[in-house]
Amino acid sequence: MGQPGHGQLHGADPGGGCPEETAATLIDLVRHRWFSCAWRWRGAWYGLHAFQRTDVSGVSSDRALLVSPCTARGYPYTVRYIAPWTAARMRRDARRSGGHVPHERAREDKRMHPMTAFRRPHPGLAGRKLLATAALATLAALGTGGASWAQPVSWKEAMVCGTDPRRPDAQAGLTQRYVVTPNGPIAYYRFGQGSPIVLVTGYRATIANWNAYFLGELATRHEVIVFDNRGIGGSGPAAGDYGIEDLARDTSTLMQTLRLRDVTLLGWSMGGMIAQTLLAHQPEQVRNAVLMNTAPPGPAGAPVPEQAMRVLSGGPGVTFSQVMAVLFPANAREQADRCFARDMFRPADYGSVGIPAQVTRSQDAILQAWSVDRPAYAALAHIGVPTLVAYAKDDAILAPRNGDALLQALPGSTALEVDDAGHAMMYQYPRALARRISEFADTGR
């Protein structure tokens, strides 16, 4: 059997069996093979799917997925490379430790410097072929910043499609309230009981863009606060153009004015960028954070594709179906066409909200500035707030590699990767997603 090609799902070698797939044996497999497209081990071919390389301050990391031919399961791990100026010290450390690189060490980046052997030859190899050792975390908890990775989740929940009358926007007495800030009023709704979850909306989004059943499930265990960003709905109008720091300051002022304690801050899409900015400047205001389908600052993130941006900007000729096509994967679009409007959060006193041109202009500038903000990316490493990075595997607006980059940038962060999900995955899996977020809000993991 020939070596499988890159990017395929590989079958077992007919002449071999399936090895026991435990964390220990698979880590051993990765440590004793070259970084290549496929590895043969105990009679089976394992496919290596490389996701991306990120480079930060002379340290580069490759996140990859080791695909089992026996169970078709994917095992993610990270290979970390160190720039050549650390090579001499690493070789010295390796000699002192008997020829083995300590677990947290990494191999040299062979793009910048010739590969150096940091490990004794593998006993099963003929001659004196030398192996370089990759620095790995365990398969359950890995990543360059101590991020906790897990298998992607697959939920079978269907869109509610307005069939359940138990929704928070149907509650009697739910009314819009206002907080006064130096830049004008911020309109919000508040309902539920428990520790507070403050939700920050995304690009050109309104309170109504939250899924009512998603919010309702959160409200079974938490107090939920949703609000419109500056210049939208009852918030504003904005006095001139504004930046992401202004939106983060508005969010902070809302939390301070309402005297919220033990806050879980949830930011979706551009709202996740606002949340990151607040976390970088005032982490003491937040107990836990959830960054959902968003992107890190700087070039480590993947920008919104031009076509998706045109649709989201509400340009001439954009149809509702086109919007659904960028928010949901193909197999969910027909249902989204029928259900999206029915499942939106629409309190009785929340009228039709347009998006002023000034808001679009300011938020366009925010996204452009975010994509090149290297200092903001560096600041993520100093955020000590437990963070859940939730991202959809089929997000057509902010690609899932953004979730990978955030996990690498945020020490101690936790991954939630959702199969068969798009940018608006709270509409696809409102209750399952809300339960996982509620659990994280309660426990920080």
From TrEMBL:
Domain AB hydrolase-1 residues, every copy: 196-427
Name used for this protein in its record: AB hydrolase-1 domain-containing protein
Organism: Bordetella genomosp. 9
